[in-house]
Amino acid sequence: MYKDKPNHPTTRLKNQGNKIGAVILAFIGLLWLTGILRLPGLETLNPGSGLSSSHNSRSWASRKEAVRQAFITSWDYYAEHAWGMDEFHPISQNSKNMGCKESSKHSGMFSSCPPTGWIIVDALDTAMIMNLTSRVVKAREWISTSLDFSKVDSEMSTFETTIRVLGGLLSAHYLSTTFPNLAPLPDDDVGAKGEDLYIEKAVDLADRLLGAYDTATGIPLSSCILNTSIGVGDRGNSGAASTAEATTLQLEMKYVAKLTGEPLFWERAERVMEAVDAPRHVGNILPIFIDPNTGEFRGENIRLGSRGDSYYEYLIKQYLQTGSRESIYLDMWDESIEGIKKHLITWSKHSNLTILAERQSGLDSELTGKMDHLVCFLPGTIALALTHGATLEVARKSPTWGKKQEQDLILAEELMKTCWGMYLVTPTGLAPEITYFKLDNPPRSWNTSDPDWEMPRSAELTSDPEAPWRQDYDIHLNDVHNLQRPETVESLFYMWRITGDIKYREWGWQMFQSFLAHTAIYDDNGKVVGYSSIESVNKLVTAGGTNRLIAGSKTAKRDNMEGFWFAETLKYMYLLFDDDTSDWNDLEKIVFNTEAHILPRFDIGSEGKVWKTGWTRKERPIPKPGERGDSLFRW
Ligand SMILES: *[C@@H]1O[C@H](CO)[C@@H](O)[C@H](O)[C@H]1NC(C)=O
Ligand SMILES: *[C@@H]1O[C@H](CO)[C@@H](O)[C@H](O)[C@H]1NC(C)=O
Ligand SMILES: *[C@@H]1O[C@H](CO)[C@@H](O)[C@H](O)[C@H]1NC(C)=O
Ligand SMILES: *[C@@H]1O[C@H](CO)[C@@H](O)[C@H](O)[C@H]1NC(C)=O
Questions:
Q1: Angle, vertex CA 74, rays to CA 69 and CA 79, nearest 5
Q2: 433 labelled catalytic
Q3: pLDDT digit string, tens, across residues 603-633
Q4: Distance between CA 136 and CA 124 in Å, rounded?
Q5: Cα distance between residue 336 and residue 452, in whole Å
Q6: Does the keyword Hydrolase apply (predicted)?
Q7: Is the beta carbon of 227 within 6 A of some atom in ligand 1?
Q8: Strand locations in 304-461 (E)
């Protein structure tokens, strides 16, 4: 999931390394005493140590159930105070719809400002896989009676609407039609449109979103007015679109094409890929802004964080979605990974943590040791790309598995560890929005010319409060908030499923407990009623036995609950602890869109039927030395 976070000039927070371990231990102790940690089936909590052999499948089932309970709590609180609304502020209990200026207590009146399903549709497939039947029935009823895109006249983000709402409807369609025992509907179709409901809404929405693609290059404008199907360019960033936004619509549009037999959806989405690839940037790592009218990239800021991230994710996922037949996307992914290694990977100064850095002014500019939490999708996606969803054990037997694959696996494992450290290093056990890293001067880089070169391996992330690894993490004051983002647990989920290493499950469980402890909000009786994003992962305010005071305080909480808490964070947590072997849960049969909506893989067929790749990559242009952006083209 992408959400932009501006990069502020910052004030550095003093390193708190030596205090952190003690505070974590003290806090865990406090939670233990207050009963927060006493969950069914959990006998011991062993912070900081990854592996534990004592857990049987029964305790994983109870952990899965704990995630389900958190979903139920969040959902029911939303349903009580803001049902149908697009935004929910759980502490003030205010809510509003997209495009409305004022936030207010829920009034049930939508006429001037209709809802878009921003939360309900986003949460729906998680409710389905959790088999929350009565809640799914209620959501479906709401979609049938209250969700009408023809009334939405505000400027909606083309990208966010596609991944959240279109993706959510498509996933609901796939799950409800293919797996009728998931949250089975007791009285299906009574005077209603039956299982066509989700697909009808999805096609209507996709059709309206096509208006955004009406540009000279086919690169969509960043917003779309749904009632008129008219695209609107970004008023900031001189009309430029985000690279990731333009290239993270394809899984959804191609699935709509497949379901409807209408090639237009396929062609419009595919054309964007061709336009973005046309300049053939070196290493296939792209600047984060592109002009929809000219097809030229804007600036030379290159990163896998906000505005860059899911371009890379959707390369490999497009390849997997259509039965591993469109090799063009695998080629692009492979080129990107090599480009990332060569130009963006470095290691931290004290402990050899692998860092996915940024080049903020082109490939010749200095590396900035900065990782948005958003980049933590990458380790899981590398693992997925390596095995195509199979287990490592199986993939290693393939004749194409070799040294490069083992090296990429180490890269995934090390990046996963760096992301986990972002959680481990703070007193709340939660990662900040952005983390900076101490690098060598000059920073080390991947040696692509030495075939025997071995990637540095990181030191153990020990619980010792003085451990040098802590000094490598540098959290700036502007970046201390946590929006309950999913990317690290998303990667833990892939790493667990693919490698089978139980430490990833343990890390996820530890992370989940930190979310429970620090993002919960409480009613006057000290009962947990919901969850909210928080202001600071570094500020540990403990007050009262039940933690109520911090919970209620707006200085500690941001008073917001994003749809992706339901759609992604809780879904990946749940699946991390889930041993269900149904097809909808089989990484070789599905792809998750970037909002964690579950879409089936399908075969485009070998005979060049309706669906086939409609473009080829251009030759790399010969660069003119010294021209603007030259460094991007040099090879
Ligand atoms: C879209 O909404 C605008 C503003 O409410 C309204 O003026 C216009 O008539 C609507 N258009 C359509 C096609 O519904
Ligand atoms: C979901 O719950 C229903 C009862 O509400 C049950 O009949 C069904 O088997 C459950 N499905 C799964 C997949 O557990
Ligand atoms: C890369 O490896 C080669 C061959 O061992 C060596 O000559 C070269 O100095 C190395 N480059 C860097 C940047 O370390
Ligand atoms: C970091 O990696 C380098 C090169 O692989 C190695 O020489 C060094 O000892 C490592 N440092 C630590 C702290 O592990």
A1: 120
A2: yes
A3: 887 655 678 999 999 987 666 665 544 454 4
A4: 7
A5: 22
A6: yes
A7: yes
A8: 345-347, 354-356, 358-359, 367-368, 370-372, 434-437
Distance CA 221, CA 212 (A): 5
As a CATH number, domain 113-300+580-607 is 1.50.10.10
Please check whether residue 172 is in contact with residue 198, taking contact to mean a CB–CB distance below 8 angstroms: yes
List CB contacts of 524: < 8 A, sequence separation 6 or more. none
Beta-carbon contacts of residue 262 (< 8 Å; ≥ 6 apart): 256
Specify the length of the chain in residues: 635
Q: Does an H or E element contain 96, and which?
A: strand 94-96
Task: Spell out where 438-515 has E strands.
Answer: 473-474
**Residue whose entry in the numeric block shows the structure tokens 């912070």:** 47
- Judge if pTM exceeds 0.85: yes
Q: Which helix (H) or strand (E) holds 88?
A: strand 87-89
9-18, 243-252, 259-268, 471-480: least confidently modelled range: 9-18
Q: Name the closest ligand to CA 353.
A: 4
Residue with tokens 């998303």: 490
- Show Cβ contacts of residue 452 under 8 Å, excluding neighbours closer than 6 positions: none
Of 24-28, 146-150, 538-542, 559-563, which one has max mean pLDDT? 146-150
